[in-house]
Design goal:
Layout (H helix, E strand, L loop, with lengths): L6 E3 L5 E3 H8 L3 H10 L3 H4 L18 E3 L5 E3 H8 L3 H9 L5 H4 L22 H8 L6 H9 L1
Antiparallel strand pairs: 1-2, 3-4
Helix pairs in contact: 1-2, 4-5
């Protein structure tokens, strides 16, 4: 058996439940119950849903770069012209590469065999090897405790 919804009488004499008010105002029942429990003033209870002042989104303005051939283009225009990812072009431009020949080159596939999956300890850089050797697995006492569990 369901419970009977509590009815609230407002200052103008109208009677509302939280569910009816929520449907009418387009807000949650919890918000309606909160409003109704605080006051019975019709102006406060029936105020519209609070919305922050929404500003229109600013149009994205891309910085223009002067290139080696004297033209001024944005990174997006360069990326579209040479069919290269925009982030790659940005990275090159932010490293002060303005030469058209360098900017227009497609990125090379730099994936080497050692960068994929597990890399053996002997192939790790010395700094990485030292950090790995400090782990519990390589400590004789910790290793003993690990075997006990």
């Amino acid at each position: 058996m369901g419970t009977v919804a509590r009815e609230f009488q407002l200052s103008d004499g109208s009677i509302w439940t939280a569910r009816q008010l929520a449907f009418e105002l387009g807000i949650t029942q919890t918000a309606c119950r909160c409003r109704l429990s605080k006051t019975n003033d019709i102006a406060v209870v029936m105020r519209p849903k609070y919305v922050l002042n929404e500003k229109a989104p600013k149009a994205y303005k891309c910085k223009e770069f002067e290139l080696s051939d004297g033209s001024k283009m944005t990174a997006q225009q360069i990326a579209k012209k040479y069919d290269i990812n925009t982030s790659t072009i940005y990275a090159r431009l932010l490293r002060n590469i303005r030469d058209i020949n360098v900017l227009s080159q497609k990125p090379r596939n730099t994936a080497n065999k050692s960068s994929k999956g597990y890399v053996k300890m002997s192939f790790q850089p010395k700094a990485v090897r030292n950090v790995i050797k400090e782990r519990n697995y390589f400590d004789p006492m910790s290793r003993l405790f690990l075997k006990m569990t």
